[in-house]
Amino acid sequence: MSAVLGFSCLFVGLVIVNAVYSYQSKHIDPAFGPTFLFQLKMLPLFLPANLLIGYGVRWVQHSFGQLTTALVSAKIVELLVCLLMGYMFMQEIPTWKTWAGLLIIIGGFILMKWK
């Protein structure tokens, strides 16, 4: 149960953070002033996102028993969220190379956990 809750929190927190940065790269002028004002307006979103990510890592670590496993699995979730944001904001469709790379990373994770 804590693994499902942890991965859910990780996913939601990472979606918030990556959506802010994706929106910024697509719609906000890269000059310092507009970027600063946008980030200032987005500050209230970062507290709940950081809490969700922090508790997500904690609960995943609690369910797997290792912090390394929790952090590596969090990076896999983040890569999936990045693919989602790339599609949503930039209409980038992942190629077979993208999926092959992700499968290699997941394979490495499985190899790391293999006893």
From TrEMBL:
Keyword terms of this UniProt record: Membrane, Transmembrane, Transmembrane helix
Signal peptide interval: none
Source organism, top-level taxon: Bacteria
InterPro entries according to UniProt: EmrE-like (IPR037185)
Subcellular location: Endomembrane system
Residue ranges of the TM segments: 38-57, 69-90, 96-114
Bilayer disposition of the protein: Multi-pass membrane protein
SUPFAM superfamilies named among the record's database cross-references: Multidrug resistance efflux transporter EmrE (SSF103481)
Major localization class: membrane
Name listed for the protein in its UniProt record: EamA domain-containing protein
Organism encoding this protein: Paenibacillus ehimensis
Upper lineage: Bacteria, Bacillati, Bacillota, Bacilli, Bacillales
